[in-house]
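Deliverable D5.2: sample structural annotation.
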Amino acid sequence: MTKGLVTAGPAIETIPVTKPDLLLLDIDEVVLHFIDPFSTLLEEFGARLTPSSFRLTGNVHSIATGAAVSGNELDRVTQRLYEEQEERQMPVEGVGPALTALSELADIVFLTAMTPSHYESRRRLLDKAGLRFPMIATQRSKGGVAAELMEKRTGRLVFVDDLPPNLVAVSRSVPEARLVHLMATTLFRDCLPPLPPGARQAKNWPEATDVIRSLLAA
């Protein structure tokens, strides 16, 4: 994989269809912790995350001066985290057993907006954790990718993400999609914007498992 790729991972037409239903999962804050290791990395750079709104820009400040850290600086920290993700990012609690159980009910595909050039290191990280489901890393709208993944399927789509705009994007492209909001960190829960109509919310993987089971059975 090289820098500048819009998408990395298997071509959609090569992803096996073994079950009618599809469980499509974001990765950061859904499958892997992102905010906790990001906050640790910020501290190493002399900054601290103290959210007052649902975004990173404007909520990270220098510990020494109190000045807000710019978006460009935050992008550099994010890329550093992705470069070191195999050492810094850990699976969200309960995700392994949950996906093992849910894989009996639906095909599972990971869909991440992580910079595609880091695909190989993330693939190794997921494989090491026993999470060997197909992964697509893309800078495209998640809605468009979700629609293409459903073209060969006759069943339901359940989409799980921590960012409400991604839930909205998928609902626009696949109106019948079932939507689930899951965010491992508690830091942003008080700042969460409204979810799209019909979206369900889960605070952890035991809750999410029950919600997803019900959506697949509905």
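Annotation notes: Residues 83 and 118 are 7 Å apart (CA to CA). The chain has a mean pLDDT of 95.
The annotation will be released with the project's public dataset once the embargo ends.
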